[in-house]
Amino acid sequence: MTAPRDRVLDVHDRPPPATFFLLSLQHLFAMFGANVLVPILTGLDPSVALVTSGLGTLIYLAFTKWRLPAYLGSSFAFIGPIVAATQIGGTGGALVGACAAGAVYVAVALLIRAFGVRWLLAILPPIVVGPVIVVIGLGLASVAVGMAQNTAGGGEYSLPHFLLALATLGSIFLYSIVLRGFFTVVPILLGILTGYALGVVFGMVDFGPVAAAPFLRMPDFHLLFSGMKEGVSAWAMILLVAPVALVTIAEHIGGQIVLSRVVGRNFIADPGLHRSVFGDGVATMVAGALGGPPATTYGENIGVLAVTRVFSVWVIGGAATLAIILGFVGKLSAFLSSIPTAVMGGVSIALFGVIASSGIRTLIEGKVDLGDKRNLLISSTILVIGIGGASLKFGDGGFVVSSMALSALMGVVLNAVLPGRGTGGDAEAILSSDHI
């Protein structure tokens, strides 16, 4: 495959010492908002999530032989199941389910290693994967807009917050297009700093928590099985959370396809999908064992790669190391937490669309005929359910299938039962370096 001509650093290129820290810090900023939002919504410790995301990323890089520049952060797809599991079995029960979800990844990776990937791609052809990628990008659009408008978490609409988000977004566009030299590779970081400065000027930054925070603090690690309610079966927790992994694997494949397109390498072939799925699974198991949420490759960081054209695994590893350190530094963690939510909303708006556009590209390059009624019905169902926020809930506080998971499940089922499976696109195109 022809590599992108405008790449700044290739996968194994080590950045100069003067820029190494800034490039890694940019990735840390990009993932920070979403990574800590998941534990906040699920009742876990954000500092633990930072540590486990960094540790999980290093594990992932090791299992993928340091050939795949992807950052692993907290997975939004598991929010519903973890909340439900916590209500039924306590935090310990939710973590047992999270570890089991990682074990599902490992099992699927071993099957891919033994039988290849084509059986999986037959289940997940372009007509399923393409719309799922769009859902990955746009399914959380409401979260990004909610952060931008101060409505995330039930807050009231705030015009100043939204204007700050738009200013942050506009500065990222400006820096990406106008700046030259080194500054062309850190537009996201510069945008965040610009938004933060504006937030300080307009009194939207609270330095009180920063002043009160200790310099060092121990994250609230929650070891496996501790805090699990008495009388609750571990198998019940596993059945509640683990099945979601079968769906998030589709998200994982979509992320690998996007990353392959952005970087210009066929990562599904080399280092291999089995390695990336295995690494993701082990990272999720480690996160669950320490009290963190399940891990997933982060669209925000893929977006940073797409914008900056810096593909170095050294930079990703640096960001992971910074995240681990940050989890123990109370002052620094409090400082990053002081970044206005609106600023991170503006950044998220800038990055999520990159993923959705890659889903459309998958449909095009997979030669999916949307004039075919079958394909039109499958894609429209996935998009409406995923972006519309539909979900399945069984019982009062029981099993919950999130909208992202449900949309992927519907796509798989419809592709399997509707006549004319051969019209769902060229799955081999996903494996071909000429199409990725």
Q: Notable features of this structure?
A:
two-stranded antiparallel ribbon, 436 residues, 67% helix, mainly alpha, 4 strands, single chain
What does this structure look like?
This is Uracil permease. Keywords: Membrane, Plasmid, Transmembrane, Transmembrane helix, Transport. It is a multi-pass membrane protein. One of its GO terms (molecular function) is xanthine transmembrane transporter activity. The protein has one domain (17-164, 201-431). It is 67% helix and 3% strand. It has 19 helices and 4 strands. The chain has helices spanning 17-42, 46-63, 79-115, 118-123, 126-138, 141-149, 159-178, 187-201, 208-212, 234-241, 244-263, 268-290, 299-308, 313-328, 330-337, 341-365, 373-388, 403-417, 428-431; strands at 72-74, 295-297, 392-394, 399-401. α2 packs antiparallel against α14 (313-328), α7 packs across α16 (341-365) and α11 runs parallel beside α13 (299-308). It is globular, with a radius of gyration of 21 Å. The N and C termini lie close together (8 Å).
